[in-house]
Amino acid sequence: MSTLQLVAIPIVAAVLACAAARTAPAQDAPRPGKPEKVDPFADPFTKNDAEKLAKLGYVAIGRFLWLGDVTTDQVQQVLGDDFAIFLETEHFRIASTLRSLAWPRDKEHRDSLADELDRLAEVCPELKTRPRTITPWLRAHLYAQRLERLYADFVARLGIETDRFPKGRGGGARTPDYMGEGPYLGQPDKFLVVLTQKATSAGTYTRAFHGKAAADTVRHNHVDAGSLEVVTSAEFAEKALMDDRKLHCHVTFQVVHNLIDGYKFFWQPQPAWLTEGLPLWFSRRVDEEFLNFSGRDHAGSGVLRAHEWARRVRMRVENDAWPKAAELCTIADATKLDYAGHMMAWSRVDFLFAARPAEFGRFVAHMKAPMTTEARLPTTEEMLGRQVEALRGAFQWDYDAFDAEWVEYVRTRYPKK
After folding, report:
1. Mean pLDDT along residues 353-376
2. CA distances from 346 to 64, 180, 277, 279, 350 (A)
3. Residue 24: its pLDDT value, please?
4. Fewer CB in a 10 Å sphere around the end CB: N or C, the chain?
5. Residue 267 pLDDT
6. Rounded to an integer, what distance in angstroms lies between the CA atom of residue 380 and that of residue 269?
7. pLDDT at residue 291, rounded to an integer
8. Residue 407 has pLDDT above 90, yes or no
């Protein structure tokens, strides 16, 4: 297994950063209790019927190869009596030890969950649309569907041509047309997502498979297998993730990090505004009040209300108190972004998706194309040089032109009050 550090090309390991969150106590969180008795190999809804599983988009449930030659049975041995439900979809392998939740009290959350369950019931009528309890199996089904919808949305919004990825391992020469090393956005193997109820289970898992026990959410690159992973727990973020909507938001943020890193294979770093702005944009569509950052919490995020980002960005523009693109877009390390920097990164992506989606897709594709054919990491100078080239190629912009069009968008679309 790979270690949690940056290693030299030919394959780059992920730089891991914990997500910090300041939020109100979870309203829909379950009370702590004993582990539930769950049969992880018998789905009570589909009854493991192959036709129903196929309709839900599952490749396998229960027992299958998890990573390399490691099986789900071996993963369960590591987790001990914290029984996991294992689902394999087209692009993900998921392990969940999440416990039951009561039906949400918050109306917005109730309505959103009802919509998700209605979509599930269209495929599998046995999945009740208004259950009194969201059971461990139902939660696993929900996350499987959420992750595949997220993958499809990511691909569609960036205009990614999935038929261009290599069908198997190995992508050939690293020319400008290079699309990676495998079929999963360019990664050789599927994306892994581990969702545990107990923080100790996440730590036990990461100690066994990453070499270090996690005390917070981690993203990990399994270098040899070519698989990018997210591991989190409902007890992380001061137990705010006991609220399923916040957990959904947080998982979205972390998984989008892996999707953009894995696109055309994880060879090279990208500017921080891009690698933070994309996860923030997708995750804020789930819950705009929950704060996700790479790195520790920044001054201000504990007192500023996250759902007011658009208004606060507008205020900064009107008062000329915002980082210009030549400053914001040349930050290489995401942990160097302050609270305002995260707002601005989100807003730049929001603008590009709304006003220039096709060009944005071409820009990201250009940024992810190989920056060097040599077996080394690109330098920061090479990365920023590529960004200037990609802005010009996709938008016919320099940094000043990027600023001008973004400012016009903010003044037109974001509220003053």
Report:
1. 94
2. 38, 27, 4, 8, 6
3. 37
4. C
5. 85
6. 9
7. 86
8. yes
Tokens in use for 407?
Answer: 């400012």
Show Cβ contacts of residue 226 under 8 Å, excluding neighbours closer than 6 positions.
Answer: 11, 169, 181, 182, 187, 188, 189, 265
Taking CA 264 as the corner, what is the angle to CA 261 and CA 267, rounded to the nearest 5 degrees?
A: 60
Predicted pLDDT at 305? 57
Residue 116: pLDDT band (50, 70, 90) is: very high
Residues 161-170: b if buried by 16+ CB within 10 A, e if exposed: eeeebbeeee
Both tokens assigned to 400:
């000043």
- Residue 92 pairs in a beta bridge with 191
**Cα distances (Å, whole numbers) of residue 101 to 14, 26, 94, 217, 236:** 33, 12, 19, 21, 17
Question: Which amino acid is located at 415 in the chain?
Answer: P
Cα–Cα dist 182/179, whole Å: 8
pTM of the model: 0.91
Question: In this predicted structure, what is the pLDDT of residue 133?
Answer: 87
Q: CA 399, CA 182: separation in Å to the nearest integer?
A: 34
Q: How many Å apart are CA 347 and CA 341, to the nearest integer? A: 10
List phi, psi (to 5°) of 191.
-80, 135
